[in-house]
Amino acid sequence: MLAYSGGLDTSVILKWLQTAYGAEVVTFTADLGQGEELGPARKKAEMLGIKPENIFIEDLREEFVRDYVYPMFRANALYEGVYLLGTSIARPLIGKRQIEIAEQVGADAVCHGATGKGNDQVRFELAYYANNPDIKVIAPWREWDLNSRTKLIEFAEQYQIPIAKDKRGEAPFSVDANLLHSSSEGKILEDPNVEPHVDVFQRTISPEAAPDKPTIIEIGFEKGDAVSLDGKPLTPAQMLTALNALGRDNGIGRVDLVENRFVGMKSRGIYETPGGTILYAAHRAIESITVDRGAMHLKDELMPKYAELVYYGFWFSPEREMLQVAIDKSQECVTGTVRLKLYKGNVIVIGRASPYSLYSQDLVTFEDDHGAYDQKDAAGFIRLQALRLRTLAMRKRKTGK
Amino acid sequence: MLAYSGGLDTSVILKWLQTAYGAEVVTFTADLGQGEELGPARKKAEMLGIKPENIFIEDLREEFVRDYVYPMFRANALYEGVYLLGTSIARPLIGKRQIEIAEQVGADAVCHGATGKGNDQVRFELAYYANNPDIKVIAPWREWDLNSRTKLIEFAEQYQIPIAKDKRGEAPFSVDANLLHSSSEGKILEDPNVEPHVDVFQRTISPEAAPDKPTIIEIGFEKGDAVSLDGKPLTPAQMLTALNALGRDNGIGRVDLVENRFVGMKSRGIYETPGGTILYAAHRAIESITVDRGAMHLKDELMPKYAELVYYGFWFSPEREMLQVAIDKSQECVTGTVRLKLYKGNVIVIGRASPYSLYSQDLVTFEDDHGAYDQKDAAGFIRLQALRLRTLAMRKRKTGK
Amino acid sequence: MLAYSGGLDTSVILKWLQTAYGAEVVTFTADLGQGEELGPARKKAEMLGIKPENIFIEDLREEFVRDYVYPMFRANALYEGVYLLGTSIARPLIGKRQIEIAEQVGADAVCHGATGKGNDQVRFELAYYANNPDIKVIAPWREWDLNSRTKLIEFAEQYQIPIAKDKRGEAPFSVDANLLHSSSEGKILEDPNVEPHVDVFQRTISPEAAPDKPTIIEIGFEKGDAVSLDGKPLTPAQMLTALNALGRDNGIGRVDLVENRFVGMKSRGIYETPGGTILYAAHRAIESITVDRGAMHLKDELMPKYAELVYYGFWFSPEREMLQVAIDKSQECVTGTVRLKLYKGNVIVIGRASPYSLYSQDLVTFEDDHGAYDQKDAAGFIRLQALRLRTLAMRKRKTGK
Amino acid sequence: MLAYSGGLDTSVILKWLQTAYGAEVVTFTADLGQGEELGPARKKAEMLGIKPENIFIEDLREEFVRDYVYPMFRANALYEGVYLLGTSIARPLIGKRQIEIAEQVGADAVCHGATGKGNDQVRFELAYYANNPDIKVIAPWREWDLNSRTKLIEFAEQYQIPIAKDKRGEAPFSVDANLLHSSSEGKILEDPNVEPHVDVFQRTISPEAAPDKPTIIEIGFEKGDAVSLDGKPLTPAQMLTALNALGRDNGIGRVDLVENRFVGMKSRGIYETPGGTILYAAHRAIESITVDRGAMHLKDELMPKYAELVYYGFWFSPEREMLQVAIDKSQECVTGTVRLKLYKGNVIVIGRASPYSLYSQDLVTFEDDHGAYDQKDAAGFIRLQALRLRTLAMRKRKTGK
After folding, report:
1. In what order do the strands lie in the sheet with A2-3?
2. Where do the Arginosuccinate synthase-like N-terminal domain residues begin and end (chains A, B, C, D) (predicted)?
């Protein structure tokens, strides 16, 4: 049961499974919004000898956004302060579906095309094992000897696997994509002191190239999830698709970073998350008027742990589920609308409103508040907050320490 | 000992202290880079009857940035995900200096001009008490009955306190400023669903008005602190001044937010932190290649607590000091340079380099790594990471839970 | 609506409310297992002129243990490493019921007898406000001038309030009790360097006085809650009652501590929590075989925050509720039995078993494990765990830092 | 460079290194207070053909307690709520010394005798790699085929390695010991539902066997470290030795637990930490009067992470060092004395005193406090603490949520 993209690498893997393992291969190709047609994957699989009943192609876009992306955005998850986890969040779903189909067809092993240096191997395999503790996992890149592009191409030629022209030479960098983001890593991007060439970017125009006029949008939220755009209800996948288009056109969501991989080294990545970047800002804004301070600060304290779990591949872990129910609990009143100005890379919040708003003009006003708040209360509040600091200061006076 | 700005409000307080308390008032006016001249404050104090030896005016800009702003930026402190704590960080220093001068001149009480609804009263007074446990604190806004603008103006007129023309009517919003930021709050800004008028902004031009050509800069860091700009060494205050100018000209650092005050209500603020916004991005970038993953993730987990402490006014608390030594420990190798592109509100990292870089092209490369990393290790790594998830999955199979 | 114990202090408060406020007083007396009969409280209230329909007496023991004590024990909550929160956990329930009855009878204010120096005033009043934002709160100890025992006694005599003999002199210390614990504080206990006199203890015999023969018991758990003792099903209050008797007889559950109050000072308390101490140990033991490591470590990290919230009185806060759902999520399989040896102050776990056990003899055995675990996996696991430490060590070699 | 105990297993390893690797073996035997004489280890090493200059025997007891045990006790580290980390804390020191001696003698590989299922292999090897990134590690138990006791004995016989009589049969369980604790694991202890036989315990008598009369002791602390016993100054190792004797004689420090190993499975251990258990209670007690609430709660929140790092073997990691400096910062005034009653398994705090005490009878007293604390302050304190809860309650009234 192979996670099959239809590309050169997974086609080589397919053939290698047939030859090295003598396996009857079942392929699974998922549409997570990577932006490629799936028809060719079916044809190619057939051409490589896969029986039609062993070819599984599924559109998982709605499930992906609804059950993976949205819960994660409720948490405001940012890995190491900057990364919106676009690749990380896609792997658990693929892994889980692979296991489900494997059980359905009676496959005894699952296989993915991730390399032995990256995070994705971990994410895939933790998803496999969490959903089937006894499954056999095949990770060709850690096993075979096709460990150079030349050998891979030779193997492909030997077995008549079609090779796109631009794959003959070394690809200049490695790409992953889904409805949430595109990532580019490796090769010409490996020096973190060199700015990425403009060709690296795939799903956003540059801020410089974006229109001189801002775009104003309004996102409607319900229980922490975006449900409407400019008043029009959208499903999760429709929403992310629409926000991606808006982000792309306004040069939004590019990140150039050096991150710490779970397998222990630092790597440099160029990520584009146009819709997700807008969604993140909007979600923070609607939370700012609907979530209580105690809940918000707890969320902020839990977030780095949550993001780490997603990044490391522990989506199907009890601790991620514990954090999720806590986070979801905080979202019960995160309902309302946020207006945003999109302009040349900027996402600017210009308004937020909610029937569940905790913001009170009476409480905060510099004007007469009609008794909502007694300023004299602050004196006692401060005196007791200060008590332990005063006690420390008295000790210092007395002992010098 | 009054924290005296020279403005209308603190002039009224000064006179009120003389009349209501019969106090001999000592004034303290600090230059924290708020952008106003201090000469007029001296003249006004003299005019209100303060003896020259009781007028203290000090330039604290270097101390402010070096001992307060820089340590806080080492922590990447963001309150509620967005606020760079520009007002919060200035209060402890003012409060501490007030106490020091009060002790020097033998004053028995300190006084500030913060209102009873805000955070600043807490920050001032915690700083007072932490530095002198027995000090008497006078907070006029919580005590007097001049609780409307009309009464305040009447009082000012009664005592011949000069009133600037624009202060006669209600000020349209309230402003605070120092070298790190300007804030605007209250009055016409109180509805969080209304975009702030363009006149609110004081130290940045808008992204739209910024130049069409990006500005490229390089910031040099040493042990977590910015020490040079485009190769030229700068003191902390010089650095922040220079980054403020760069930020202002490129429309950088505007934030419109709703935050949770320590005294319990939500408030809306418009903040401008041009230099700080650049510094934050640059610091994260130099950390990304010089700080180990374990240290970085711990920092990220501690940050919300640290930011909360600064926001709440607990700068002089043992727990803030504990966090600070931990954070400072992590910065020992945060030395190197970061190149940034500033463009219409965007701060884009385009390069980072360090003699202490932990980034290794050998480890990360898709190419031959000459044995730096054995991909087979990943198999065992994943198998053991998965062991507990597999055990859970077996339980689920057996028990259904 | 007065929280009325029937004792001298709340009787004085009752009369004071009638005289100082001219109030029609409604009394509420709750049985939380403090071990006193409630009949006298009714009689005394009547004697002080309360109409029968204004006297509310309720047995809340089951609700107390089921909805407050048990959820808290699921969290393994310990304040400052030692205190099982016996007083803290009772206040929210009393406060909530007071508000409910106040609304039922149309009372416009609630009143409690806690002093102005302690935590209980905060816990009561936060519970009031969280359940009725507009309620008026009367805290006599912060308001009246009966601030010495002499004055209190005089007031009682003036209004013919019966005074127990031992109350005439200064009580030697202050006591609070409910089904979970007894606390003794203040007066002769105020010096933390003096061992408490043997008379202080009320619901436990000393370890020295306990039997020379251990008692063996078995507690059955279901989803984190104790449900049976030696095979016999018990309700929550029955369980705690039974464990209290076992604890008392074996000298278990005494704690002598100095704690940090929410209002800012340190205080010394002598606590007895016989049943709770047994329950805590048993719960940790059943968790040790049924809860996954990731979930357990997350629980342990969240616990101090949870305990702080309960101690400070924030039971009815969104952040406590967020933590609770996370904790409850972790308890789904915490089902099984724990055997314990009780002996002269010791609670010794001697066995734990569960149908949901995650403990696997196959995995852990020093003997042949039939392939459950491949020791070679550990090599790769360690190599990748070490990768970042090796990178740091290389930097140190190169740069000296 | 072999970590050599002189026992059967490491003697077999020694010979195996000579035969399988053809290695010139250097042995390192450390005295960490395991209670065995080191003379025999030297003789045995010589007998197995090790040159005298290649035999290293060191007494590391003082360094062990001073630089490892004491810093850890400053943190009040408890793994999973119960385990005082007695085995974990010894490994980093052994590993570090092995690397230092290896560099001194020019050894190119280090070797330990830990099995492939446990935590110790991780702890040793992380210590190796953190101190020498390029070192070669040999872990015989993961490599060789002597994977049954029979084969091991055969190998020993083949090479004339002396075999103690009781080692011929299966050892009934596996033991580790140092000055801080003894652990017993495996074999007859593998069923967590069976009480350990009385013979398992090695360094404590049972509570039942302990004297009927309590022992009273006084421990003096300086900056968080125990420095004197009953007024007599002791070095760290002397202190732990003395407390071990006191604990042993009073039946103190036995723990029977199921813990979660870093390598992924649960295991059952019987630990004896007599002196450490006393030290833990005493340290908490002296902290309770000398450490501020904010610092204490931060310590408590950081502790689980710290304990996890020590347990997992990350002593030499930047994040452990960050936590350590934060913890050490909190200990500056943890100076004073604690009196304890030791009685049949119980460690009972009966007094604490310090020149740096923050406990103030004036603040806490039920009596007249001479103005140290104004009870009216509490009203404002509570009102502002309640403000957000009241705002939530108003929302609930209005919206039902």
Report:
1. A55-59, A27-31, A2-3, A109-111, A136-138
2. 1-162
